[in-house]
Amino acid sequence: MPTGLSLHIGLNKVDPAAYDGWDGTLLACENDARDMAAVGRAAGFEDTLVLTGDGTVENITGELRAAAARLKAGDILLFTYSGHGGQMPNTTGSDVEPDRQDETLVFFDRQFLDDELYREFRRFEEGVRIVALLDCCHSGSAIESVHELLTPEAMRSHFQTSDPDGLEAASRMMPLFRQQQAFEQHRDLYEGLQRELREGNGGGPTPGAVLIAACQDNQVASDGDVNGLFTAQLLKVWKEGAFRGDYRTFHRNIQQRMPAIQSPNFYTTGNPSEEFLRQKPFTV
């Protein structure tokens, strides 16, 4: 019988010392992680929960590498992240992204580059199924940068508020000036990582992965009082396991419940098999 491991990360804050005094307070990320862990547990996954202060790069990569050592072809990893998303300038190496930005997950002690997550997934044996759900502002390599599209005026319109503090509380996007401050504070570290990742991402072929992000490249994800907007609608669609359909249908049904200003994105890496894609979500 296949083995299912799940890793659920929820960060309601980050370490101010790592982000030039910003603690990135959010309300619902730990709840998201707990609720997704319950979903995984009910589906037969062995779950691991990582919350706020434990959400460091060392801890999270350690859990991913432990999972990679255990899982074999036919097994499955469920990876969920709830917290801030960010971007940073990407000008190193020959493989510069079209928008000259690296997308990041904002972990407790530093930003985690999209290419770092890709590198961790490549540590898994070919044939391992990977499902990743990201409830954050998670911009891909869009032609238009989110920095250009999400001006302060657009942000106020998006969240229907004129209060700057309200914008930060409502959005899971790391504020733009904070992104720049954090990058400048640790420029040598991040540019070194970018060079390392461009020179060789390590590992083998990427296992078939299904990734569902909370929003499109040029959008931001909303926080909430209990759950983030994306996670809240996902849980309603899932209906404690009563949902019937495959991964594409699951994404489409979530998307139909979301406002136009936040439209979840569905994408795959590593050529997941049609058999995998046709499975009911979270099938071990």
Automatic annotation (TrEMBL):
Domain Peptidase C14 caspase: 18-268
InterPro entries named in the record: Caspase-like_dom_sf, Metacaspase, Pept_C14_caspase
Organism domain of life: Bacteria
Protein name: Peptidase C14 caspase domain-containing protein
Species the sequence originates in: Streptomyces avidinii
